[in-house]
Amino acid sequence: MDVMGDKATLLETGRFVQPSDRDETGEAVEEARQRLAAEAGDVEAMSVLGAMLLRRGDLDGAEPQLRAATAAGDRAAANNLGVLLHQRGYADDAAGWWRIAAVAGSAPAAHALGRHHRERGDEPAAEYWLRQSAEQGHVLGAYALADLLEHRGDAATEQWMRVAAERGHREAAYRLARALDRKAAESAGVEDGAGDSGAGEVEQWYRQAAARGHQRAALHLGAILERRGELKEAGRWYLTSAKDGEARAACALGFLLRDAGDAESAAVWWLRAAQDGDGNAANALGALHAERGETQTAERWYRAAMDAGDVNGAYNLGLLCAEQSRTAQAEQWYRRAAYAGHREAANALAILLLQGGDAAGAEPWFSKAAETGSVDAAFNLGILHAGRGEDVAALRWYERAAGAGHTEAALQVGIARLREGDEREAERYLRCAAGGGSPEAAYRLASVLDARRPQAPAHELGEIAHEKTECEEWYERAASQGHRRAQVRVGMLASARGDVVEAARWYRAAAEAGSRNGAFNLGLLLAREGSEPEAAVWWARAAEAGHGRAALRLALVYARRGELAEGQRWADLAVSLGPGEVAERAARLRDALREELSA
After folding, report:
1. In whole angstroms, what is the distance from residue 54 CA to residue 82 CA?
2. Which is nearest to 289 in space by CA: 312, 267, 313?
3. Residue 594 DSSP SS3
């Protein structure tokens, strides 16, 4: 019983002054004084002297003093006599004396007796005596009672754990914080430690336990502070916990230092944590060496992580082998991690098999990863089914991935809803995808909104530009992300409101990125501004990319210049490119140029 001989038990009466501030001479003087009083028959002195000798480990000297004081009715002596007999290995005899002291009202004795009964498996008796101790205000009794009730799943656990914590018991404070933390996480439906409900009280108890030297409490307090963005204080608590030997705190401190740009210091703490068996730290070291191109060292640390029971080690080994084109080994490691339940490894394995042409082998792994929560795997299943023409199944998986926030999946669902004519539902998904950064989704959303707005009146040059609509803002977002059709559309809108400079900027961006419509429109703008030679350059680029109207414009330019053969060449191209109206006009122009050449 680890607490039955501690100072709180031995000094139960408060009559024995703790010697922490005394020197050895003072102790010797006090012991001599108590011995003289005990020899003179002072019962209290016998009890205190026995406690002093017991604490010093002098069991033979302490026993007669304690027995004499106990015989005279001193309950503290009876309690300490029980402690002495327990230390000698006479547990049942010790329990007898604890019972005498407990019945006489000794809370420490009731605590010790309750612990004795619990060790013997007699939980009803244990609860009775621990409750007696706790209700008398004994902090160890309150904690031991809470521990017993928690083992039984009793609702009163929190009440007694709180009592012990409020009276300064650090382990009680830590366990109370953990219980409140789990409860908050469960009610919020998030991982343990990530809930906000009751966060202030949780932090209060972690802080109390950490301040009393509880290393795991310091770790959890650091995590709370880190999530809140108070990184400096979080680092201090991680450091406190890590110095006390908590490997997880050393690992967390390493990540904090890495994020602050101090990779060298991070590596020192990761090394310390990894050597203490922390798989996450070993993985972090592996990733650090992999980034530096030190693949052999990286592989060694990934293996160390795997040996520590961290399945991420096998997954990271797979990634490392895949980067080196060691496909067979990558597959081996991915399989090992996937069989251990690593969902991203299952997804990576499926991709590897699919790339190798084994679609039948890939599908079950995609399914396993998706069913265990891999959003990427759900999206990949959508792609797999879409490639087979199984649109209903593909849409089902796209919707599942989109529901978990997958941007490209939301885009695919939006496109599918547009095909079905469900514009409102399409808009909802396109907004999700566009908000997630998809330029294609932003462009399609803008197109949906654009189709709804009333026709705006034409703007004259110099007229004050109107305020931008939501659809223009989405077009611009897509355009700024390099979407060529959006760039052309933004240019057209700018041109419509008379902003020639802005229009030219967007047309040029699209044209330089390979947009034939952008090149054609830029040519029209330049021609209107009197720069027909430059316009012809862009029209030529557009025509060579398959733009029939640009070819027709070039044919007209060369015809006006009198370069009939060149004009006829572009007219021929315009006829072949179309569309119908363009082909018809180009054919008439070509025939006229041909007649002119043959005249």
Report:
1. 11
2. 267
3. helix
Cβ–Cβ < 8 Å for 465, 498:
yes
pTM of the model: 0.71
Query: What single-letter DSSP state applies at residue 182?
Result: H
Residue 127, pLDDT score: 95
Nearest to 581 by CA among 551, 544, 549: 549
Amino acid identity for residue 81 in this structure: L
Q: What is the mean pLDDT of each run of 10 residues along the chain (599 residues)?
A: 34 40 73 91 93 93 94 92 94 94 93 95 95 95 96 93 96 96 80 59 96 96 96 97 96 96 96 96 96 95 95 96 95 96 96 93 95 94 93 95 96 95 94 96 94 63 60 94 95 91 95 95 92 93 94 92 90 92 92 79
**What is the distance of C-alpha 188 from the center of its chain?**
16
CA-wise closest residue to 232 among 249, 253, 217: 253
- At 25 the pLDDT is 78
| Structure tokens, 279 | 């798989």
Rounded distance, CA 81 to CA 88, Å?
Answer: 11
Q: How many helices (H) and strands (E) are present in the chain, helices listed first?
A: 35, 0
- Exposed, middle or buried: residue 19 (CB in 10 Å: 0-12, 13-18, 19+)? middle
Cα–Cα distances (Å) from 288 to 16, 21, 294, 297, 594, in that order, read 57, 50, 9, 10, 71
Contacts of 421 by beta carbon, 8 Å cutoff, 6+ apart:
none
Tokens in use for 504? 């030219």
188 and 195 Cβ atoms separated by less than 8 Å: yes
Q: Map residue 261 onto helix, strand or coil.
A: coil
CA-closest candidate to residue 3, choices 77, 75, 93, 98: 98
* H or E, element range at 478: helix 470-480
Q: Are 191 and 218 in contact (CB under 8 A)?
A: no
| Structure-token pair, residue 333 | 């490691």
Q: In the prediction, which pLDDT does 200 show?
A: 87
Report the C-alpha gap between 220 and 441 in whole angstroms: 41
At position 539, the amino acid (one-letter code) is: W
Question: HEC profile for 129-152?
Answer: HHHHHHHCCCHHHHHHHHHHHHHH
The predicted structure's pLDDT at residue 593 = 85
Residue type, 420: E
